[in-house]
Design a protein that fits this description.
CATH class: Mainly Alpha
Shape: globular
Number of strands: 3
Largest sheet: 3 strands, antiparallel
Radius of gyration: 16 Å
CATH topology: Arc Repressor Mutant, subunit A
Order of helices and strands: HHEHHEEHH
Number of helices: 6
Distance between the termini: 38 Å
Structural class: alpha+beta
CATH superfamily: Winged helix-like DNA-binding domain superfamily/Winged helix DNA-binding domain
């Protein structure tokens, strides 16, 4: 069962939230964006090491979607073996406050969860 994507976001209040989540939503995109924000430039295999639970296929798909949406830039170096680097675009960098807010909220949530379990 696939995710429904909208051609336009012309609905009521809250559509801007839906539009944003359509770009960064899902299990891996936010984490990929956070890691690129943190490190600035990462190679494909570095991302694989940082995110050991993501499959190669899923990482490739997520990076392609982020690149297609203009949030991530891919640079390919003509050498053997091929070297590919990923970084946030200027447009992707505009998400920094959003990603940082998500991280801060998540830190607080995890801390609260640990305290409730104790």
């Amino acid at each position: 069962m696939g995710r429904t994507t909208h051609a336009s976001f012309d609905c009521a209040v809250g559509c801007s939230v839906e539009a944003t989540l359509s770009l960064i939503g899902g299990k891996w995109k936010g984490v990929i964006l956070y890691r690129l924000l943190e490190a600035q430039v990462l190679r494909f295999n570095e991302l694989r090491r940082i995110l050991p639970n993501i499959t190669q296929r899923m990482l490739t798909n997520q990076l392609r979607e982020l690149e297609r949406d203009g949030l991530v830039a891919r640079k390919i170096y003509a050498e053997v073996p091929p070297k590919v680097e990923y970084r946030l675009t200027d447009y992707g960098l505009t998400l920094a406050p959003v990603i940082e807010a998500l991280k801060n909220w998540g830190d607080t949530h995890l801390q609260q969860t640990v305290q409730q379990a104790a």
